[in-house]
Amino acid sequence: MSIFYVILAIFLFGVLVGIHELGHFLVAKACKVRVEEFSLGMGPAIFKKQKGETLYALRCIPFGGYCAMAGEDEESDDPRAFTNQAPWKRALILVAGSFMNFVLGLVIVILLYSNAYAFRSTELVDFRENCPYTGENALQVGDRFWKIDGKRIYQYYNVTEFLAAGDGTYDIVVLRDGKKVELKDFYMVPIEYPGEEGKIYGFYMGYDLATLPLKLSNAWDTCMEFSRMVWMGLSDLTQGNVQMDDMAGPVGIVDMMAETGASAETTGDALYRIFYFTAFIAVNLAIMNMLPIPALDGGRVFLLLVTWIIEKIIRKKLDPKYEGYIHAGGMVLLLGLMAMIMFNDIVRIITG
Q1: I need a surface site. Which of 38, 219, 240, 296 has the fewest CB within 10 A?
Q2: Judgement on whether residues 63 and 104 belong to the same structural domain of the protein
Q3: pTM for the whole thing?
Q4: What range defines the domain where residue 316 resides?
């Protein structure tokens, strides 16, 4: 594996973390919250500089970072402390990190698509002779797949992916002449056609000229597809379809990024793949960080809401240290999980 791709992967992962913390930092500053330290990386500081009330630091371990605000988990007399801000301000600060990750992923995809000439579309442009799935009350040339069994079609490959996962009978929604047309209980299975190897559905989808609006909408749809992939992965994890060994932490992600580049035939293709994968990880981090788990931003937002409701009921401000205890416990469990995943990543790299 080229050391160049390893270094690039480490740098890009650091950018993902940095952008996340920058989101917290910028919104905290905009809300006049006192930021005591803004750090990229963890461990001993390579560089640090005090500027005004904030210490800026670059630390030696590129996995991690933080935006330390006054009074995050404790009472403070400082009116600019995090805990003394209105709930909506605190929520904005907490959500800002994930928002920035998602925006970064979207921007990367937009840049990757900027030179595109055309995109594969979901529009039906032709059918094989004697295809049984076309007709007045069936599929027609010009139709665009919109949904299959309630699942939105974001990319052309979603069509065959969702059809292959079904039992042969589907609720299909297509766009026809600007209107949504529903084909309920529509039977469709791949069949044999003369001259074809294996069975196919017998329809063909075309291409769309990559205008600027289409580039932007396609980039958005790609990020929506990334989001769905993350939720599907979480669903598989909760159902036991994914094991601990299948999960990857920072070390595993960097290794996958580097492998993605090393497996490409050209440097240009390698960079495209690495940045595409980086966009996926950015969206992944945006969603994972908003899960309602203590120590994660989503857990903090959830407890912020719960605390606000309780305070409205009892008409008394709760001591933030108790919320701090919950997050501290969550952080210990999270670090333990990350340590296990990192150990598995290292073993997989060594033995793989």
Answers
A1: 240
A2: yes
A3: 0.83
A4: 3-112+276-351
